[in-house]
Amino acid sequence: LTRLDNSAMCPLIYREAMKISAKCLLSFCLALWATTSLADITNNKIVITKLNKKCLNVDFSLSPVFTIHQILTPQMAWDNFFTHYTKLDEVAFKKEITKLSSALKTSSRITDLVGKPFIFANWKWPEAQPWMKTLKEEQILFITGANSQGHAKPIEVHAQACSNQTINTIQFAFDPRLYPIDIVATDNNPIVLTKEAPFATAEFLLIQ
C-alpha cells in the first residue's frame, strides 16, 4: 500500500481540504456551545403567593432565550435561532411576544382539589425592548462560548389567579415545554416540575 503524502497533494486540493476541516471544526464548536447554552440556563422559576382569601399572585421569572426557543422555535438550531431573533425589528418582535404570551396563558393551570380552575387575569408582560436586549446579550455569550460565566437577567411576568372559593389546597401545572420549573409556594417546600412530574399540589394557610 502507498501512504498518502499531504505535501505531495495539489496545492488547490490541499487548501480546499483545509477549508473543509476548518468548517467541520467550526460546526463542532457551534454544536458544543449550543449544548452548553441549553444545559447552563438556570431553571425557570414561578413564585405563588396568597393575595387574599380567593386570589393568588403568580410571578414568573423566565429565561428569555430558553422560553422563546422552546415555545416558538424548538426545532431551530441555536445559531440560527440567535441570528433570526436578533435581526427582527421591534414590530416583528412584538408579534412573537404576543404568540409567546398567548401560549403561556393557555397552558398555565391552577385548580382546587376537585379540579375547578382558577381564573387567570391581570397579566403584566415586559415590552419588546427588554427581551430584544437580553437576546443580544445571550448571543454574545453563545458566540464566545462564555455561557458557563453566567447569563443575562431573567424576564419577569406577573399574573393573578382567582377562585370563587376560599383558597386552601391547590393543584398546578404549567407549560411542560418550560420544564424544569422551580416552584416556590408560600409555606411549602420548593418544588420542581419536570416532564416526569408535571404537576403538584401546595397548601396555603387560611387567611382570617
Element-by-element helix/strand order: HEEHHHEEHEEEEE
Shape: elongated
Oligomer: single chain
Number of helices: 5
The percent range for strand residues is 15-25%
| Secondary-structure-derived class | alpha+beta
Main sheet overview: 6 strands, mixed
| Rg calc | 23 Å
Describe the structure.
It is a single chain. By secondary structure, the chain is an alpha+beta fold. It is built from 5 helices and 9 strands. The model is unreliable at 1-39 (pLDDT under 50).
What's the gist of this structure?
The protein is of the alpha+beta class and 208 residues long.
Itemize the secondary structure elements and their pairings.
Layout: H1 11-40, E1 44-50, E2 55-62, H2 64-72, H3 78-86, H4 90-107, E3 109-111, E4 119-124, H5 128-144, E5 155-162, E6 169-173, E7 181-185, E8 191-193, E9 199-203
Parallel strand pairs: 1-7
Antiparallel strand pairs: 1-2, 2-5, 3-6, 4-5, 6-9, 7-8
Helix pairs in contact: 2-4, 3-5
For this entry, give a set of tags.
9 strands; disordered N terminus; 6-stranded mixed sheet; 40% helix; 208 residues
